[in-house]
Amino acid sequence: MACNIEERTWDEATACIEELAVLRANWDGEGANALARETVANALAFACLMQDVLPPPTVHANPNGTVSFEWERPGVTAYWEVGRTTWGMFLTVAGTAGHQAVGKTADLHERAEALRHLAAAIGDGPTMDLGFGPVTVATVYEAYDGPKLFRGETPTASYLVFWAATDAYPDRWLSVRVSDERLEALTRGTMRLRSALQTAEDGVVQESTRPEATAVYTVRALAVGDLVEDDLPAADARLTERSRLSNAALNHLEVLHAMAERQRAEQAATLPGTTEWRDDLVPAAYSSEEARYWKAAADAAMPLVAELRQLRAFTAQVAALIRESDGVVGYHLNGAVATWDELGLVPAALGGAAHADS
User: Fold this and answer.
1) The model's pTM
2) Which of 45, 123, 191, 305 has its CA 20 to 30 A from that of 99?
3) 3-state helix/strand/coil string of 141-161
């Protein structure tokens, strides 16, 4: 069963999963299984994880009780299926043998490898050819006039890509391969950004340079010992300090909050006057300890989410004002303009620059 989606967006795909969650057994009249709550949770988690990476899919429930995500592009068809404890992927690409994989939800490494194939085939992110092949910009951690620090994906590897301009090469990038385990350490903040370069897992940092925007990049492999201090992020820079909550995370909290509110309303309708959360009074699709946990977490987080959205909007307005002006008149008694740089307010600072000199 597929949802009736008029305009395909990730928000509608998430809403579709919620609709499918309440399907009862035999929803197709031929003995189809209802979706287990674990399957619904896995589908929502997949949507949250991939909505900043992949274009919106078609979503539908399968008679065996799983949820499928489907993409079609010229020459490419992709499926990702999730169940209670397993997942499966199938890719058909014109002119190739295609790719398929299955695995356990708990096996993060195997799943990450399959997602890399999926993103490389249908990823909607911009691509940059840094001289060692096209790199898809998957997650941007820092941006000013375009990405300056991002996670890049190729069909075979993940890279952490740093903007490292010099006077000689104003368009210069350093790329280092990162494993899933190292990327997790970086995003958790247990590894410093400069350590990703200084202790490259394969001992190599790719340097991509070009003299002007119309030229192609020249790439050369640097040994970690070839890096100089100016190549490195600030000594205390960590990815978590530079990253902001993604829209996907905020949207997911709002989805969870909406589901909790609906569950509370359904419970109240079942037994008016009820004030305690009782699992035996709510539909089976929502009845679980996880639902209670997410309800409490979402209720606590929503005021912070609203405040964060307001702060983001305000910061964006201030950054736009700074980019379009030179400074503040009237700050100095002698009438001189106090420049934004003098005041320590530059657009890069509003986003948290990873390099000490940027």
Assistant:
1) 0.42
2) 45
3) EEECCCEEEEEEECCCCEEEE
